[in-house]
Design brief:
The chain contains 19 helices and 31 strands. By secondary structure, it is an alpha/beta fold. The protein has six domains: 96 residues, 3-Layer(aba) Sandwich (GIY-YIG endonuclease), CATH 3.40.1440; 61 residues; 184 residues, P-loop containing nucleotide triphosphate hydrolases (Rossmann fold, 3-Layer(aba) Sandwich), CATH 3.40.50.300; 181 residues, 3-Layer(aba) Sandwich (Rossmann fold), CATH 3.40.50.300; 61 residues, no CATH class; 105 residues, Ribosomal protein S10 (Alpha-Beta Plaits), CATH 3.30.70. The structure holds adenosine-5'-diphosphate (ADP) and zinc ion. Zinc ion (ZN) binds next to loops.
């Protein structure tokens, strides 16, 4: 029988293990430990689960008088044990996000399932006399294998321009000898002394401080705030070197790791080898090997996406969160966690150093530093005495683009000058595709997604209309489906693909490239294109926010922002911060090489505080104002937020359930740990408030109707306890209704 862990423990009785299984349940299940099986918390075991068997992890062992009623553990698995700090981390995240513990465990233990057999690699070398019958192909093989070196079979076949069969036949004849090659190590050991960088004085100071923090062997967090191009990477490499010397492992987290081959090369230049890479683009079998290497300690440094946070490090001494302000650190599906914040939690549980690096830190991290919870190091100038880009606004009210175009005459002139000098220009527009809306000129029909409240975005390269929320794709027709007029469909508004048309008209001889994540060829293509841009193989680059992420383009001297206002007027409490960060990052791509750079931002609101801060370069003033505004409103980091998203098969069921949840919250007796403020009541600094429900801005996604509730709590309140109580007091989810809990929401759509 499977039952929830009973609490009684007795010195005698059967030995029982509480096992957490990686499925969507919060509780661990109790099993009898068979005689002779030695189990410790953290051990992997196979257990019967319903009608099947599952792999789980022992959370606790104890004696129980009623153990004989339980099912028995099938076997102990030969996998590295889940260390205590990692078990605590899993419990911590589950408590914080309200996700079932089994789901959190799943994120950390899926990888080893994909070990599979390593393909056996065969090497061949010249060993015996020539074959009885010589053919041109055979003689090419023998010539290529001259010297007795060991070749990989496929490499030799390629060198001799023949098939693998020719090689096999030469092995059969004894001319070649086959030897099995040792499996390649999953990652080589980085050498802290390999290519030490000569740091400038302020870089040296910061690098030494980070190294000293690592050497304490104690938990600490440092915010490394350095302007774009100040050398933050070189500086935190000093912390990596210190961890390597101290025999500790390092995790470097990046928001778009799949795209940063530049980073991997820089790491190799500094430490002699590339770090192990961890992201969804790495093959499953390779990931399994990295998982084991991390657990055994063979892998010393991992560069990874947010999921790397769940790797079973054996002796973790340093976590670097690069571009810590990036919204990409928030996972929104499944377990909704903020990887930057959870990196700090993991650092604390592991007694590791944490470095948060950014040119435009989040308000959260800035406030943590101001309040003394984090140390702060500042790099205020670019490396090598390079100037910060000169940023100016183009006021679209007086310098508008021609009708149906988006490049203003002033920006056009600046691009012309730049490429005329043989330098590179970047046009930034955060909109994928050709046009965000397609409309029939004749009847006004607009193309909407059948599953979502969203317009379909035309992607001309793919000849398709695409929904950016659910992925729905349909062919762009030639006639209007509503009024059947031929050739009446017209694109409205710009996307990067449409900018490419405009650029081709204005600069027919320029080498232009659209950089976007949705072209065929995926990550590999993007990596290649980013390298080509860095080498100066394009004159004009048109890109989405993908180009803003920490890349180094030495030939780039002009960044033109097509629509600096986009995003400013959304309902997101972080809208101003996000826009400021994005614009600062994008314009920060300019002038990182030997020549000075400039940024030109096209805007309808040059007097908006975000634009003024960007233009004046008065970052401190912007942060101060934005921080004060957050404090007045009790928004993060001065208060906490959680979103409850109620979805249903139809609008009414979602709305009824959402309203019932709000009512349940107000009916709850105030506890010593929380009080609730009534709906519409005056805002209060020390009570938990439940706002809404309101229909979500995107009211339907994937056919599901959505209502949102927002819970706002003071920092001191037990928000998770409140959420649990509120959900428990709400009606059960039924009739297709689902409630998604998003603690620290980053998206308000
Ligand atoms: P950030 O991450 O702060 O924008 P990077 O670390 O990418 O800056 O550095 C910007 C550029 O300056 C890179 O090309 C880097 O190699 C170079 N750089 C920074 N510091 C040094 C240094 N001390 N010696 C040589 N090159 C440096
Ligand atoms: Zn859709």
């Amino acid at each position: 029988m499977i039952g929830e862990s009973p609490n009684e423990a007795s010195p005698v009785g059967d030995l029982v293990a509480d096992v957490l299984v990686p499925v969507a349940v919060d509780i661990s299940y109790s099993y009898k430990v068979p005689p002779g099986m030695a189990l410790e918390p953290g051990d992997f075991v196979t257990v019967p689960l319903g009608t099947r068997e599952a792999t789980g992890v022992v959370w606790k062992t104890r004696r129980s008088a009623s153990g004989s009623n339980l099912k028995t553990i099938t076997e102990k698995r030969d996998l590295p044990s889940v260390r205590e700090p990692i078990r605590n981390f899993i419990d911590w995240i589950a408590r914080w996000t309200l996700a079932p513990r089994g789901m959190v465990l799943r994120m950390g233990v899926r990888a080893p399932d994909n070990v599979g057999a390593e393909p056996i690699r065969i090497g061949v070398r010249l060993a015996g006399p020539p074959p009885g019958r010589m053919t041109p192909a055979r003689s090419r093989v023998i010539a290529a294998a001259e010297g007795g070196l060991l070749f990989q079979k496929s490499a030799l076949a390629e060198a001799a321009a023949c098939s693998a069969g020719v090689i096999d036949s030469l092995v059969d004849e004894g001319t070649l000898e086959a030897v099995s090659l040792e499996a390649e190590p999953v990652a080589l050991t980085p050498d802290p002394a390999f290519g030490a960088t000569l740091l400038e004085a302020d870089q040296r100071e910061a690098g030494d401080a980070l190294a000293a923090s690592v050497e304490t062997g104690k938990f600490n967090v440092t915010l490394l705030e350095g302007v774009t191009g100040s050398g933050k990477t070189e500086v935190y490499f000093e912390a990596v070197a210190a961890a390597l010397k101290a025999g500790l492992q390092t995790l470097i987290m990046m928001p778009e790791i799949a795209l940063t081959s530049q980073f991997l090369d820089r790491f190799a230049a500094r430490f002699g080898v590339r770090p192990a890479e961890w992201h969804s683009g790495v093959a499953a079998r390779k990931r399994a090997r990295i998982w084991f290497g991390v657990a055994s300690g063979d892998v010393r440094v991992v560069a990874g996406a947010r999921s790397a946070l769940f790797l079973p490090f054996k002796e973790l001494g340093l976590i670097v969160v690069d571009e810590e302000h990036e919204a990409a650190y928030k996972q929104n599906d499944g377990v909704a966690y903020q990887a930057r914040d959870m990196a700090v939690v993991r650092g604390q549980l592991e007694q590791a150093s944490v470095v948060l690096a950014s040119a435009t830190p989040s308000i959260e991290s800035r406030v943590n530093a101001e309040q003394g919870r984090y140390k702060k190091l500042v790099l205020s100038a670019r490396f090598g005495g390079r100037a910060m880009p000169d940023i100016a606004a183009i006021d679209l009210r007086v310098n508008a683009a021609p009708r149906g175009k988006w490049i203003s005459p002033r920006l056009c002139e600046a691009v012309g000058e730049t490429i005329g000098k043989g330098e590179q220009a970047l046009l930034f527009l955060n909109r994928r595709g050709y046009a965000p809306l397609t409309l029939c000129k004749s009847c006004g029909h607009k193309f909407q997604c059948p599953n979502c409240t969203a317009w379909l975005v035309e992607h001309r390269f793919r000849r398709a209309l695409v929904c950016h929320h659910c992925g729905h794709v349909e062919r762009r027709p030639d006639t209007c489906p509503e009024c059947e007029t031929i050739d009446s469909l017209t694109p409205c508004g710009p996307g990067v693909e449409r900018m490419a048309d405009e650029v081709a008209e204005l600069f027919p001889n320029a080498r232009a490239l659209v950089l976007s994540s949705d072209f065929s060829g995926g990550t590999e293509r993007l990596r290649r294109e980013l390298e080509e841009i860095a080498k100066g193989e394009f004159d004009i680059v048109i890109g989405t926010q993908l180009v803003a992420k920490g890349h180094n383009f030495p030939h780039l001297t002009l960044v033109g922002v097509i629509d600096a206002d986009v995003g400013l007027n959304s309902g997101d409490p972080r809208a101003a911060e996000r826009t400021f960060q994005l614009l600062q990052q994008v314009t920060g791509r300019a002038g990182r090489g030997a020549k000075a750079g400039r940024g030109l931002a096209q805007t309808w609101q040059p007097d908006h505080p975000v634009m003024r801060a960007l233009l004046s370069g008065d970052t401190e003033r912007f942060y101060t104002e934005e921080t004060n505004a957050r404090q007045r409103a009790g928004l993060p980091p001065f208060g906490r937020l959680a979103a409850l998203i109620v979805t249903g098969n139809d609008r009414a069921s979602a709305e009824i359930h959402a309203r019932a949840m709000a009512r349940a919250a107000y009916a709850m007796a105030p506890s010593a740990r929380w009080k609730t403020a009534p709906l519409g009541g005056p805002p209060s600094q020390d009570e938990i408030m439940v706002l809404g429900p309101a229909e979500a801005p995107i009211a339907v996604v994937r056919g599901r109707h959505r209502f949102r509730l927002l819970v706002k709590a003071p920092r001191s309140a037990d928000m998770q306890g409140f959420l649990r109580a509120m959900i428990a007091a709400s009606p059960p989810e039924r009739g297709g209704v689902r409630v998604i809990v998003d603690v620290d929401p980053q998206s308000f759509l």
